[in-house]
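Posting here for the record, re: PRP.
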Amino acid sequence: MSEDRYLTFALAKGRLANKTMELLEKIGITCEEMNDKDSRKLIFVNEERKLKFFLSKGPDVPTYVEYGAADIGVVGSDIIMEENRRAYEVLDLGYGKCRMCVCGPKSAKELLQHHEMIRVASKYPNIAKDYFYNKKHQTVDIIKLNGSVELGPIVELSDVIVDIVETGSTLKENGLEILEEICPLSARMIVNQVSMQMEPERIKKLIMDLKQHV
Ligand code: PRP
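Prediction output follows.
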């Protein structure tokens, strides 16, 4: 397809987007407009390379990619698993490393071992459901929260949580610990299925170039 078409990237805003721009810079892709930290713009353009970048909430990245509003997305594998959208996952970028875990007070370990009916709070109800129902064959009550999930066991909303652990300091400071590990996580690049067919050379070159640096 013609190079006149813009290739559009959806990036999960925050640390992942910054890391991604640093990585892209290593293969000569920059976006001057994005360096203006006071800007309230949502979409940034590199006219010369015919590239567009936009920043969105992490969970929306796979949605933009599935519908073709973005050709390429960069987002954590936690969100890819939770959202379960149609897109090709093409590259593990190696940063944003953390773990999806079942956490809680030490006393909750027994509840997990004996497969008791427990309450699980999580921002990731689908991941929690898959883990408890399909892997552990344990019937649980899953409660969706939108953040600060560690509060769940502290205020006795839930027995345990399913959440991301990076350094472990949030758990430690709140008297909780990792009880079971579900899986490792990292930033991934995803590609819209039609874009991959329409622009295979441009996208495959990008992936090959990035592979040299991850
Ligand atoms: C994430 C996650 C944990 C914390 C883990 O929360 O949900 O709470 O980071 O990091 P740590 O192991 O390094 O302490 P985030 O900061 O995204 O905020 P949220 O809980 O409001 O979603």
